[in-house]
Amino acid sequence: TSCNYPDIDSVPDFKDVKLTKEELFDLCQISADVKSEIDRCLKEKQ
Predict the structure, then answer these.
(1) 32: containing domain
(2) Apex CA 20: angle with CA 15 and CA 4, to 5°?
(3) Number of domains in the chain
(4) What's CA 28's distance to the chain center, in Å?
(5) Tens digit of pLDDT for each residue in 1-46?
(6) Exposed (0-12), middle (13-18) or buried (19+): which is 24, by Cβ within 10 Å?
(7) What is the pLDDT of residue 10?
(8) 1 lies in a domain?
(9) Residues 41, 32 contacting (CB under 8 angstroms)
(10) Nearest C-alpha neighbor of 41 from the set 18, 21, 29
(11) pTM, full prediction
(12) Secondary-structure percent of the chain, ordered helix, strand, coil, rounded to 5
């Protein structure tokens, strides 16, 4: 077993993870390089 998960079905689903505003900003900053893209990303993720 890799990563201590016995089966792929037991890996948690991260779709409902709640991020703080700081984490959201970091995520959007990594994936976008233009301020307008960062702002759009933040709105989509909230």
Answers:
(1) 14-45
(2) 50
(3) 1
(4) 9
(5) 456 656 666 666 666 777 788 888 887 787 777 778 878 888 887 7
(6) middle
(7) 64
(8) no
(9) yes
(10) 29
(11) 0.42
(12) 60, 0, 40
